[in-house]
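Chapter summary example: a protein plus iron/sulfur cluster.
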Amino acid sequence: MSTKTSIEWTEQTWNPTVGCSKVSDGCANCYAEVMARRLKAMRVRGYENGFHLTLLPRRLDEPIRRKQPTIYFVNSMSDVFHERIPDRYILDILAVIRQSPQHTFQILTKRAERMAEFFQGQSPPHNAWLGVTVENRTQGLPRLEYLRRISSCVRFVSVEPLLEDLGVVNLTGIHWVIVGGESGPKARPMKREWILNIKSQCDAQKIAFFFKQWGCWGADGRKRAKKLNGRLLDGRTWDSVPLQAMCFDALTQKGLMA
Ligand code: SF4
């Protein structure tokens, strides 16, 4: 089932698998886990196994059937490069992406090593943006090195939940950075200066910067409902997307630009 989503940086979600397992600190309060358990309790089709990794091949052709150009977040309820998803099934997902040139597909993973191995010696589809999550220095930042090895039209980083100051980040080859704080009852705080540190590095290197949300901890350091904290940073929204980078790289790969 592909569905409209309230996630600010995409349009629809497409989940040809659901379920996952935790790999790093960013997973501690996983939204997908909470949702999967809830949907199982509501007996929603596809969630019979709750958060246990489940392939849903009947959902594979959904984007092909949709004609209206759409930005899809692939596997918002799972991770495309989870160790229990066979290579064959990932190839099926990529085949659908190739057969749907009217759409753009955003693939975000915490399993950056497997993603880099998977694409060794081959390029992802032109309409796939590949990204990694970076929630902290020790577990998150090394994923950037794996991402850089892939010749993707757009390489992006989701810094959510931002759990600490990331210091100086090597953003070479990165086209888009999304930053967000955590939500939910156990949300961990995010400080304004941590966000500004990343934003200033993006600005200096002309990398598109998107501020998604404060989450449950506001700019004033107080905890409250996520909606009340909103998504303004220093009085405005920051919604840049990497269109220029995408066009440049796509044209370059087609041999239309030097
Ligand atoms: S990788 Fe993503 S979906 Fe999987 S457990 Fe971690 S936060 Fe949840």
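Key point: Helices lie at 31-41, 62-65, 87-98, 112-118, 142-148, 192-204, 226-229, 243-253.
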